[in-house]
Amino acid sequence: MASKSAYPVLGLLALLVLAPMAGLISVSHLASADAGIGELWQSRYIRRVLVFSLWQASLSTLLSTGFGLLVARAFAHRGEFRLRALMLKLFGLPLVVPAVVAVMGVVSVYGSNGWIPLGRSLYGLNGILLAHVFFNLPLAVRLLLPVWQSIPAHHWQMSDALGLSAWQQWKYLEWPALRETLPGVALLIFMLCLTSFAVVLTLGGGPRSTTLEVAIYQALRFDFDPPRAVILALLQLILCILIAWISSRFQRLPDVEITISNSSLRKSISNQLINTLFISIAAVFVGMPLLAMFIDAINGPLLQVLGNARLWSSAGFSLMIGLCAASLSIVAGWALLDTSTDLALANQKRGANLIELAGSIVYVVPPLVIGTGLFILMMPWLNVFEWTFPVVILVNAMMGLPFVIRCLGPPMRQSKMRYNRLCQSLALSGWNRFKFVDWPLLRKPLGLSAALVSALAMGDLGVIALFGSTDTSTLPLLLYRQLSAYLIPQAAVTAGFLLVFCLLVFWLLETGIGGKSRVEY
Amino acid sequence: MLNINALAFSYQSKDRQSEPMLFDLQARAGEILSLIGPSGSGKSTLLGLIAGFNAPISGQILVDAEEIQHLRPAERPVTIVFQEHNLFPHLDVFTNIALGINPSLKLSQAQRSRIIQALDKLGIGEFEKAMPGQLSGGQKQRVAIARALVREHSILLLDEPFAALGPALRGEMIELLKSIVEAQQMVALLVSHQPSDALQASETTAFVYDGRVIAQESTRKLLKESKLLEVNEYLGYL
Question: Which fold has domain A300-521?
Fold first, then answer.
């Protein structure tokens, strides 16, 4: 019989999604009565925001996926080389680098006073594209690389035996394999860029370069115009549902895999050189902003910033948010997976998939939309700024759920498949089962999940920007305020501190919880 | 003594329900009853029903005249040895066996001694502290049988436990099992795909076909002289 642990979590998720949406919809009626909903829809500002949102997301996707494809192919064809593992680790870094920190790095490299100045001002579309490619090029590489692994070795041998050229190999072997995965990867990146908040908030150049997410925030925090925020949030929601629906038509994304067996790939010297060049350019592109940001931090007013009590209180709040969100996300993810794996083992795959999809609801309903709904729902009854931390923790825990499901799901399924019956027959259940079976077998993915969710929540500048006040600040919010006040040297130190802090917490949780696994599958 | 009377079961999913299976079977203490039959005929399902992993629609499972079909798996006097994954890979041999006695691992001195004795009896006394990853396939299955031994349950279910072993080792393991089952007066059911296993292990063998036990008789007679079309088809005589 399947565990029922998922149902309270599903209820909570439904409440967290439906309540804000109900809030948005109820206020949209007010909007129509107040300002005229038709007027708002037809407003030039909203149309411009919508077009810019789609335009920047399309360009970011094209650049990230296009270059990501070239670099992933270069990795696959280059085979084993000394720095390969290090390079792939570097490509994993953007996943835990807070967006606002990456923005600092991008400005340090490509800004008007940077190492490679790109024109007079980086703020606007150029800056947004650079930052989005910084984040999504490595993601595309890591998602596309396993496609080459899926091509059987004997297909390469056969293509060699038939004397196929590199172009023919691409056409007959690589492209057919990629064709199934590429749309899914591109749509995921499009969705991430469409809902990107911190990058556009910090690098967007005013009303001309504003996306829906940032416009929602500005409508609520600066113009205090809830009806406009509602229209924007509904627009964002419709777009996300549309993209999620299109994504569901394509095959599922592969699991992120960074090992590849490619001994049978053909290796000519000219190809090796080209592949090395692609990999090097990508590594420099990803590594340079991080390096520049560190150099700026070291050269900044270190003692002044580190001696500021606000930095430490913000760090404390960030840590609290990170740890609470990770704990909540893991408990919820475990509950969902417990039921979904039971259902999958009982051959009820549809139910199992639905439960796991519910855990990824945050891809469809963006956190800022949830935040806006909650803000509007709570506003008449409560002082929303007194509820900052519970709301930020809840929304960040929701944002972490897809990662928990992705990290913990496969090993949990495998463990249950192998040992469920043995545990049943040995009367191993409850605490004994957790202590002797689940914990030792799953602590590694649990550690990775905790580390990922904590780092993401600590670096998030989304809902906190909406709910944060002068009394309650996290490190990303402090950094954003320093940037807004043009305290750039101080911001550089804060950015460096935030990055080191996130990486330290990531490492501590991953190794502390994950431990040294003795499990040999 | 194990008696299975009109035990009905059907696999159900949202979209479909499989043809109902209906089992009748008797097995005596002190000997191994082999279950043979084509893949998907219901052999492992029958073991799952006895172990409590599958819930029957109706019918009885009697162990020494007591009904057990309503009991949870852990409450049944049943130990099962699977083809693989009988041991937790992160626990040493001693702990893997100890979990079979007490899931909280709080053991008395007598229970500890019993584990050591069982390991010695199965010829793996020196592997007490070894991890499963350090053992061969045969040694792993010996550990699983040692656990069955210390649990002292009256029913032992063996779901193709020797499928991954070579012929010589299989023969050796079957002889070992026979002596244990006889000494402990257990009822043992052995699912196997190899008729030769049944010949060596059992005086009596049951033939399972399409969710039913269609024959239960002397192993030699069943394998050499059966007139049943299904048996001859399975053995490749047709």
Answer: MetI-like fold (1.10.3720)
